[in-house]
Specification:
Blueprint lengths: L16 E3 L5 H7 L6 E6 L4 H16 L5 E6 L4 H6 L7 E6 L2 E7 L4 H12 L8 H13 L3 H14 L4 H13 L3 H10 L2 H4 L2 H19 L3 H10 L4 H13 L3 H15 L6 H13 L4 H14 L2
Parallel strand pairs: 1-3, 2-3
Antiparallel strand pairs: 2-4, 4-5
Length: 304
């Protein structure tokens, strides 16, 4: 659903931001506020301060992770409800809890004041979803390699906040863990370009690209092992073997292969082994115990 007046505030779609009229005000504000706090923004297309307030309050509501709803009321089209609530100037903002107005303000406000107001109202919701706790649980499932349940939880988080970068990254990684590469690619295509610039999301996309590259190399492991056995200084074969092992799911052995390469010749091909190792670290996750151990060994090699 397209929310608000695009000329006025350029707002994006969100389950927690909606246009409300006199016809559905009772349902979408009064009744809904009995379970979820509702902030009502009275605005008009010709109102300059409304254009400043609108995007800031929408952003703050999105960041509240589903614990508060924003109802936008165009007073030009809904004069009756504005009169009933004695809205005399715009923008006017009211907060409703348990069917009653509990707080509000008039006129444009600094972004910090808007954030504080939305947080205060969202804190009144004691039953709304705790996104941070959900992300922590999803990450735990992922670290346990329970990619299916982790992916479902990340997907649930995204249904509440489609721009939560931790959930976007986790969902991509979960699909990669399940080897659902096509689904991961399709999901990435659906992401807004600005979100793809986030480091967490970039690393997850890198994990997919690396897995696709490794998938194509995984059939060569035996051949590459023989090459290295014949010539332990065949650094290119070592590099290819590490990628092939990664593609076969032998993650720890892939990291050890690169660490061995660095021990043999750390400067080969402009430190290609170290760079590949860092790429693996980002794809696996820096908190993974295997990565933590490999990073300690890398430090030992580099500074010995």
């Amino acid at each position: 659903m397209l929310i608000g007046n695009s000329e006025t505030n350029g707002s994006e779609s969100s389950n927690n931001i909606k246009d409300v009229t006199s016809d559905n005000f009772m349902e979408e504000v009064i009744e809904l506020s009995k379970t979820t706090p509702v902030i009502v923004d009275f605005w008009a297309p010709w109102c300059g301060p409304c254009k400043e307030l609108g995007p800031n309050i929408e952003k703050a509501v999105k960041n509240a992770n589903g614990k508060v709803v924003l109802a936008k009321v165009n007073i030009d089209e809904n004069q009756a409800i504005a009169a009933q609530l004695r809205v005399q100037s715009i923008p006017t903002v009211y907060a409703f809890v348990d069917g009653q107005p509990v707080d509000g303000f008039m006129g444009a406000q600094p972004e910090s004041a808007i954030n504080d107001f939305v947080k205060k109202i969202s804190d009144l919701n004691k039953t709304g979803p705790n996104i941070e706790e959900m992300i922590e649980n999803a990450n735990s499932l992922y670290n346990e390699k329970n990619y299916s349940d982790a992916g479902e939880m990340f997907e649930t988080i995204l249904s509440i906040d489609a721009e939560k970068k931790e959930a976007i990254s986790g969902y991509i990684r979960s699909l990669v863990g399940l080897k659902k590469y096509d689904a991961a690619e399709n999901f990435i295509e659906s992401i807004d370009d600005k979100l793809k610039d986030d480091n967490l999301v970039k690393d997850a996309i890198g994990a997919l690209e690396l897995s696709l590259k490794a998938k194509n190399a995984s059939s060569k492991t035996d051949e590459l092992r023989m090459k290295i056995e014949t010539n332990p200084k065949d650094m290119e074969a070592r590099q290819e073997l590490a990628v092939a092992l990664y593609g076969s799911g032998e993650i720890e052995e892939a990291l050890n292969c690169l660490l061995d390469s660095i021990s043999v010749d750390r400067n080969w091909n402009e430190e290609a082994a170290r760079k590949q190792l860092v790429e693996f670290f980002s794809a696996i996750g820096l908190q993974d115990p295997i990565v933590v151990s490999a990073r300690k060994r890398l430090s030992s090699i580099l500074f010995s």
